[in-house]
Specification:
With about 220 residues, the protein is mostly helical. α2 (about 10-35) packs antiparallel against α8, α4 packs parallel to α6 (about 130-140) and α4 runs antiparallel to α7. The longest helix has 26 residues, at about 65-90. The protein has one domain: Ferritin, core subunit, four-helix bundle (Ferritin), CATH 1.20.1260.10. The relative contact order is 0.17. The protein has helices at about 1-5, 10-35, 35-45, 65-90, 100-120, 130-140, 145-170, 175-195, 205. It is about 70% helix and about 0% strand.
Length: about 220
């Protein structure tokens, strides 16, 4: 693998390699998150067995969010709304190429869609607002050079994925866990796209192997 990375490629060949890498890494990361769905669905079925056995049955988890889930999912919505606002700041800073603007805008809209989906699940319990403290702590990184903005976005997506991983370990309700798994699947691909857009070629970086810490909306 070391050889191909060092081989000089034509412009067309390099483009093909990037597209292939994106497809491969995207499917790999997304597939890992999607694989959670059968597990979640499986939890909804109570154990059954022959009445003559002494194996106890387990109660199925609820579909709707529990009270604790509501608080966790509300924090998740704040993360998504904060991410949307950070991308708005990055877009407003300007100097993007057409391709960069399309990618950044698409990711921004994905975070907005995630926030809207969480609002639909939570109804009146949805916070409906970003975390001002989290935004204030990160916004300066989204207003620098284009390269630094892409790096900041990469780190944000990595942190968002880590946040959703923690949520999946804590959520009880099937509906909330399934939605978070779907959001995580999408956002796991963002890091790869942003690293590639920023000229990164190291596979560990493209795979986001060094994951950022989870986000805290109350920090």
């Amino acid at each position: 693998m070391e050889g191909p990375l060092k081989t000089e490629m034509t412009e067309s060949g390099a483009a093909d390699a990037r597209l292939g890498r994106r497809a491969l890494l995207g499917v790999g990361v997304g597939g890992a998150a999607a694989s959670l769905l059968p597990v979640l669905a499986g939890r909804s079925s109570a154990s059954t067995g022959d009445s003559s056995t002494t194996v106890p049955t387990t109660a199925a988890p609820p579909r709707r969010p529990t009270d604790d889930d509501i608080a966790l999912l509300g924090a998740a919505q704040q993360v998504e709304l904060t991410a949307r606002a950070l991308y708005d700041a990055a877009i407003a800073a300007g100097e993007w190429s057409d391709t960069e603007r399309i990618v950044i805008t698409t990711i921004r809209e994905a975070h907005e869609a995630a926030a809207q989906s969480l609002a639909g699940l939570l109804g009146g319990d949805a916070p409906g607002e970003m975390s001002q403290s989290l935004y204030s702590s990160m916004v300066s990184d989204f207003e620098g050079s284009v390269s630094s903005r892409l790096e900041a976005a990469y780190n944000l997506e990595s942190a968002a994925v880590a946040t959703h991983t923690e949520l999946l370990a804590a959520l009880i309700g099937i509906d909330g866990a399934t939605l978070i798994a779907a959001i995580q699947s999408i956002e796991a691909r963002h890091g790869t796209a942003l690293a590639d857009l920023n000229g990164q070629t190291v596979v560990s970086t493209l795979l986001v192997q060094d994951e950022a810490a989870a986000l805290d909306v109350n920090a």
